[in-house]
Structure formats: structure tokens, C-alpha cells
Amino acid sequence: MAKKKKVLLSNADAIARLDMMIPILYRNIVNAIRIEATMEAGNALIPNLPNALPGALAFNAYAELGL
Q1: How far apart are CA 17 and CA 9, in angstroms?
Q2: How many Cβ atoms sit within 10 Å of the Cβ of residue 59?
Q3: What does the radius of gyration of the chain's CA atoms come to, in whole angstroms?
Q4: How many of the other CB atoms lie within 10 Å of CB of 25?
Q5: Which residues lie below 8 Å from residue 45, measured CB to CB, with a gap of 6+?
Q6: Which phi and psi (to 5°) does residue 4 adopt?
Q7: What is the 8-class DSSP label of residue 58?
Q8: CA atoms in the 13 A half-sphere facing the CB of 15
Q9: What is the DSSP string of 7-54?
Q10: Residue 62 burial (10 A CB sphere; 0-12, 13-18, 19+)
Q11: CA-to-CA distance for 59 and 67, rounded, in angstroms?
Q12: What is the pLDDT of residue 40?
């Protein structure tokens, strides 16, 4: 396989690329935090339910509850 030639970006091009990526990364981080909070709430809720289910079955209970 032939080696790829390195292409150096100008500072302006590199900053332009970062400007495009940062909003996407921000949304991904915010979504990850929301998912974590949802899962923590579910983890606190499921054991207190009657007939609590372990593991993957608990995930199905989340879905049934609309969490």
C-alpha cells in the first residue's frame, strides 16, 4: 500500500473545520448527559417497582414506562 502524503492545513482552514465540528460535539455531549441522567433516574426507579427485573429485562421495563 502506498503511503499517503500528509496535507497540512492552513490555520484558517483548521479553525474553519473546528468551527464546523464544535456544534456537533456539543450536541453529542449534551445528549450523552441527558441519556446518563435518564438512565440514572431509571436505575433508581426500577428496583422500587413491584416485580423488579434485573439486567436487560429492566431495559424493557424502561421502554414500557416510556422512559
Answers
A1: 10
A2: 14
A3: 22
A4: 10
A5: 65, 67
A6: -80, 140
A7: H
A8: 3
A9: -PPPHHHHHHHHHHHHHHHHHHHHHHHHHHHHHHHHHHHGGGSTT---
A10: middle
A11: 9
A12: 86
Q: Provide the greatest CA pair distance for the chain.
A: 62
Task: Give CB contacts under 8 A, 24+ apart, made by 22-29.
Answer: none
* 24-57 pLDDT tens trace: 999 999 999 999 998 888 777 766 767 665 666 6
Tell me the residue length of the chain. 67
Cβ–Cβ < 8 Å for 67, 41: yes
d(CA 51, CA 60): 13
